[in-house]
Write a structure and sequence with these properties.
The chain is α/β, with parallel strands linked by helices. The chain is built from 22 helices and 19 strands.
């Protein structure tokens, strides 16, 4: 009798262990359902924080034809982060989730087990993912060694971001026509001289007081990004093997002094710090501003207005703001840092623990990551939106025209660039860019920016999201430190003397030291070192 009981007990334990093992296998992407190895129709629910469009356009239909998968997009009504938190709290999860990569909410989903590890799935069903992502997979691993998401817009792209922008027609009138498109940088002194010459030559334009330079007070990140790029500053100040807040960099104070000097000399718009984006765009488009410092894509509306109002259509292209490299004293052209870009992309596509078929989902993602999938998502359907000619992808003109006329409507009706789930930066095998609308057909402003500033691109991935975990006392500390820095930046920029700039800088440093700056910097350094170790560096 005792022997029988023992045998039953062992059988019960083995059964329990077997069940647990089966659940673990399903969660990590093993045999996950009747459709795991078939092409039978399946529907996956999908939360995309960026769009709620129905999966019915031509691109969507081809994806379903190729994979057997229909996607049911969940509407991200309201604040996407609030919706993500609600889904996590309720446990009512869609099959696939797209959310911000490296964010607090992504970390919550990973640590709570709401999204599954993907390593085995990648190994067994992700040949295209392995080929296309390469070492990006190693860099998006969590500390436990698992991949929990696939980033999009990944891969370092040599592409301009910030820079100093000047009206080309006015540059020619000021005597620097030889430098408008030859790729040469300007020194800080040369740039300031142009502002002075402009003010002297044009006290007023069309009855309006001329403005040598204005900035967008609502987008201080672009202001600091441009001026830091001029001084070759990095996201952190690295010294003695430690990461320090960039305000400790000696170049930071020099940068603010230069910005303030332009303000005190009357070369910088007196109203810039309080301006909103709409006001900024309108002011640029009025025709009486010579220069600004901005991200390349933030002057498009103003440039369109300037072109429209050009008296001579033959010179309308020159009547725009073009982006140039300006160098601080002692900074070499190759040391400028105008182009911060993360090679790890923007969003993360994850498979939830509620997913009914992880294998079929992985096969879908692998298709989308492939060369064929990239061109389908970003160029549309072959024979309808583009054709293959002489071994190269060639877009149909009517598609380009439709996007130029109404981007949102063209994307909605064609499906082109509507979903960017597994998109890679750069060109495909034939040399054409995966991003048709963003990179295939550029305008003169973009072309010159690439020529002038593409070489200033650098990878921010090693420095991204090194701060304390959300909801911790240190996170609150960091918020206070950053708010203090932002407050004093404007105060320094608008100071009435250089002595006031220095005085405000010293006050700022005292306040952020008291708020716990040294403790934060230890966190930055520790997290940076952990990341380097995780990446095998």
């Amino acid at each position: 009798m005792k022997k029988l009981k023992l045998m039953l007990a062992v059988a019960l334990v083995m059964t329990t262990l077997s069940a647990c093992g089966g659940n673990q296998k399903a969660a990590s992407g093993g045999d996950s359902g009747t459709n795991a190895d078939s092409s039978a129709p399946i529907t996956l629910t999908w939360f995309d924080q960026n769009t709620g469009d129905a999966f019915t356009n031509p691109v969507a239909k081809v994806i379903t034809e190729k994979t057997g998968v229909t996607v049911e997009i969940q509407q991200p009504t309201g604040n996407p982060v609030e919706k993500l938190n609600l889904m996590l709290a309720s446990g009512d999860l869609p099959d696939v989730i797209l959310m911000s990569r490296g964010s607090d909410i992504m970390n919550k989903y990973i640590t709570s087990g709401a999204v599954i590890p993907l390593n085995d799935l990648i190994e067994e069903h992700g040949p295209n993912i392995q080929k296309m992502y390469g070492d990006t997979l190693a860099k998006t691993r969590s500390e436990d060694g698992n991949n929990y998401y696939f980033s999009n817009w990944y891969g370092l792209e040599q592409y301009p971001v910030f820079g100093f922008m000047m009206r080309m027609d006015i540059m020619k009138e000021l005597g620097v026509g030889d430098k408008v498109n030859n790729g040469e940088p300007f020194t800080a002194e040369e740039f300031e001289e142009l502002l002075v010459k402009f003010k002297e030559k044009y006290p007023t334009i069309d009855g309006k007081e001329s403005i040598p330079m204005t900035l967008n007070g609502e987008n201080v990140g672009a202001v600091t990004g441009s001026f830091k790029g001029m001084y070759g500053m990095m996201p952190y100040y690295e010294t003695n093997g430690e990461l320090k807040k960039d305000v400790r960099d000696p170049r930071y104070l020099e940068m603010v002094k230069y910005l303030n000097s332009l303000y005190r000399k009357g070369l910088l718009d007196k109203e810039w710090a309080t301006m909103k984006t709409k006001q900024f765009e309108q002011k640029l488009g009025n025709g009486n501003v010579f220069a600004t410092a901005e991200a390349l894509w933030n002057v498009g509306n103003a440039n369109a207005l300037l072109k429209t109002e050009a008296a001579d259509k033959a010179t309308e292209e020159e009547r725009q703001f073009y982006q140039y490299k300006v160098l601080a004293p002692g900074v070499k052209p190759e040391e400028a840092t105008y182009g911060p870009k993360s090679s790890l992309g923007w969003d993360g596509v994850a498979i939830s623990r509620s997913n009914k078929d992880p294998v079929r989902t992985m096969k879908l993602l692998d298709f989308l990551a492939s060369e064929e999938g990239q061109y389908l998502l970003m160029w549309g359907v072959e024979g309808e939106h583009w054709d293959m000619k002489d071994g190269k992808h060639v877009p149909r003109q009517e598609v380009l025209d439709a996007f130029k006329k109404n981007w949102d409507e063209a994307s909605r009706t064609t499906g082109i660039r509507k979903w960017t789930w597994m998109i890679k930066n750069g060109p495909g095998e034939d040399g054409t860019p995966y991003d048709l609308m963003g990179r295939y057909q550029t305008d003169p402003v973009t072309d010159l920016a690439i020529k002038n500033l593409a070489d200033t691109s650098f990878d921010t991935a090693p420095y991204d999201n090194l701060g304390p975990a959300g909801g911790t006392p240190e996170a609150i500390m960091e918020t206070k430190v950053n708010d203090t820095i932002n407050k004093y930046f404007l105060k320094m920029a608008l100071s009435l003397s250089e002595d006031q700039v220095v005085e405000s800088y010293n006050q700022m440093m005292a306040e952020i030291e008291a708020a716990g700056l040294a403790k934060l910097e230890k966190i930055y350094t520790d997290n940076f070192n952990k990341r380097q170790e995780l990446w095998g560096k």
